[in-house]
């Protein structure tokens, strides 16, 4: 494994693959948990699709449509290979949010499940759909309490034992608010031993950690393309084929149909029954390209580099007087913080205006998590592969500059 | 866009030295306002005598922009009738939207005219004003 310096040099050079940093040389982009920047390869793939292969998929017999369909299905295969599923277990969606809404509706409408369970630290996209669809369909909804930002297995055990069954448990692999690497493998075991279905929101996990769906104890997995260098508007829901076959689609329309009768309709096989309407073909191709890019660099390098950046940032931020870090022991790539003399919005605004540093401020769409921490808003710096140790230094200097305004 | 266009001396003064901060004992009315997208919230208290708003205070938590805006609003509204207060609120909204407005009615609140350059912070600056509008309904 390379040294901290060697890895930093490697990723510093790689920054040249991301045109936004040439366009905006002063940008220090530390909002990667929200979305990542795009490498030239992904941008070029989108352009190439529209210039050379644009046609709708699965519907026509002419050559252009054949090529477009082939590209779309090749992209599905690339995604499947990347996370270790069969291609028919990959459903393309608009993103994690749509994947989880689709799943909550489809599992709910199947009539088989009596309860939905989610921890309180979830991003709203993995909290609100389960809560609302449970209420709409008359199912039980159980939030699992958290301790600071952590989940205790005894709380999970108690709920999965006592809840109304059959049940679905959905949780994140890495919280977007605090970068907490949740013990999802252990939770999945508990859920399965109690006869439940386990759903993993991997939106934050997949950009940082290699994942093998087939080898895992997970039934469904959701992630977004744009958080792993891909385009916005494309995401994935992966699911075990036998489960996908059992559940109903929740969006109806073109291409998801088998036979339409006057009173009833039968649906296409998986994954097509879940992909109503014209899909984001260019997005799928762009996502496949992004995953190839990540694979080519290797998770080993990316994870180590992010770990180095996180460690360095924690060390340098923890000595700033008045600054509180909301960082778990095992936080990955995300550091949330606040300062006693300045509101997170003001700090983020001044970081941007004075130093070109982009961090997020607010509740990070995790209101329940922040309520448990007893705060209404935090600043969050989140790292990805093109960040360097120089970016951390700029963040630290930027905070000190911003604090001078509020002294 | 320079940071001083947003964090002007007037705004920083009201943020750091607001004399209207704190709960009001025995208010005639109080209203909770929250900024859903960022988690900030404030509570506005008024004491009226007939149609006149004699005293306005606020508490809660928010950024410098939302706190300074609440402080300026409180200072401006005290001693005004409810109708005058409603008129002032509407002028403030016009200014924020970039429409023609009556600067004489807005006093120190004209410092928020610069918010045109910072559209994301409009919701911070208008929190107290929306809250007062609700309270006067």
From TrEMBL, chain A:
One of its GO terms (biological process) is cysteine metabolic process. SUPFAM superfamilies: PLP-dependent transferases (SSF53383). It comes from the Bacteria. It catalyses: (sulfur carrier)-H + L-cysteine = (sulfur carrier)-SH + L-alanine. Residues 28-395 form the Aminotransferase class V domain. InterPro entries: Aminotrans_V_dom, Aminotrans_V_PyrdxlP_BS, Cys_dSase_SufS, PyrdxlP-dep_Trfase, PyrdxlP-dep_Trfase_major, PyrdxlP-dep_Trfase_small. Pfam families: Aminotran_5. Keywords: Pyridoxal phosphate, Transferase. Its EC number is 2.8.1.7. One of its GO terms (molecular function) is cysteine desulfurase activity. The keyword Transferase applies. Its cofactor is pyridoxal 5'-phosphate. Gene3D superfamilies: Aspartate Aminotransferase, domain 1, Type I PLP-dependent aspartate aminotransferase-like (Major domain). Belongs to the class-V pyridoxal-phosphate-dependent aminotransferase family. Csd subfamily. This is cysteine desulfurase. It comes from Kosmotoga arenicorallina S304.
UniProtKB/TrEMBL annotation, chain B:
One of its GO terms (biological process) is iron-sulfur cluster assembly. GO terms for molecular function: iron ion binding; iron-sulfur cluster binding. Residues 7-124 form the NIF system FeS cluster assembly NifU N-terminal domain. Transmembrane segments: none annotated. SUPFAM superfamilies: SufE/NifU (SSF82649). Gene3D superfamilies: 3.90.1010.10. Belongs to the NifU family. This is Nitrogen fixation protein NifU. It comes from Kosmotoga arenicorallina S304.
């Amino acid at each position: 494994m390379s040294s901290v310096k060697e890895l930093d040099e490697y990723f510093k050079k790689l920054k040249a693959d991301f045109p936004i940093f040439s366009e905006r040389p002063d940008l220090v982009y530390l909002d990667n948990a929200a979305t990542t920047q795009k490498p030239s390869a992904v941008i070029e793939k989108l352009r190439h699709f529209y210039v050379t292969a644009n046609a709708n998929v699965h519907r026509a017999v002419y050559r252009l449509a054949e090529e477009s369909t082939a590209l779309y299905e090749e992209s599905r295969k690339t995604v499947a290979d990347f996370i270790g599923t069969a291609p028919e277990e990959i459903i393309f969606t608009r993103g994690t949010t749509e994947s989880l809404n689709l799943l909550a509706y489809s599992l709910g409408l199947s009539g088989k499940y009596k309860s939905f369970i989610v921890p309180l630290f979830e991003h709203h996209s993995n909290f609100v759909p389960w809560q609302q669809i449970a209420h709409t369909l008359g199912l039980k909804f159980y939030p699992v309490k958290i301790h600071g930002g952590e989940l205790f297995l005894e709380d999970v055990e108690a709920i999965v034992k006592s809840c109304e069954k059959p049940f679905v448990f959905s949780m994140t692999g890495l919280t977007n608010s605090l970068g907490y690497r949740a013990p999802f493998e252990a939770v999945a075991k508990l859920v399965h031993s109690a006869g439940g279905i386990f759903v993993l929101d991997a939106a934050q996990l997949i950009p940082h950690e290699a994942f093998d769906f087939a080898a895992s104890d997970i039934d469904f997995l959701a992630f977004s393309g744009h958080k792993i260098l891909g385009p916005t508007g494309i995401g994935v829901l992966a699911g075990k084929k036998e489960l996908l076959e059992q559940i109903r689609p929740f969006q109806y329309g073109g291409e998801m149909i088998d036979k339409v009768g006057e009173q009833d309709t039968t649906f296409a096989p998986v994954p097509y029954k879940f992909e109503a309407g014209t899909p984001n073909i260019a997005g799928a191709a762009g996502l496949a390209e992004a995953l190839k890019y990540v694979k080519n660099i290797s998770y080993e390098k990316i994870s180590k580099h992010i770990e180095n950046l996180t460690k360095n940032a924690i060390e340098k931020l923890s000595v700033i007087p008045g600054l509180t870090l909301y960082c778990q022991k095992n936080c990955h790539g995300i550091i949330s913080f606040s300062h006693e003399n300045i509101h997170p919005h003001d700090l983020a605004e001044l970081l941007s205006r004075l130093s070109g540093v982009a961090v997020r401020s607010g509740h990070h769409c995790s209101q329940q998590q922040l309520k448990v921490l007893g705060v209404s808003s935090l600043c969050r710096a989140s790292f990805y592969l093109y960040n360097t140790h120089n970016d951390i230094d700029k963040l630290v200097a930027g905070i000190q500059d911003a604090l001078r305004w509020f002294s | 866009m320079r940071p001083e266009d947003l964090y002007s001396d007037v705004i920083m003064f009201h943020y750091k030295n607001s004399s209207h901060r704190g709960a009001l004992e025995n208010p005639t009315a109080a209203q909770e306002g929250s900024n859903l997208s960022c988690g900030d919230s404030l509570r506005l208290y008024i004491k009226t005598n007939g149609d006149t708003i004699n005293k306005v205070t606020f508490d809660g938590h928010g950024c410098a922009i939302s706190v300074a805006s609440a402080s300026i609003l409180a200072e401006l509204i005290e001693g005004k009738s409810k109708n005058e207060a409603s008129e002032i609120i509407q002028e403030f909204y016009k200014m924020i939207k970039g429409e023609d407005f009556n600067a004489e009615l807005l006093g120190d609140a004209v410092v928020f005219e610069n918010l045109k350059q910072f559209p994301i912070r409009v919701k911070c600056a208008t929190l107290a004003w929306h809250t007062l509008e609700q309270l006067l309904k």
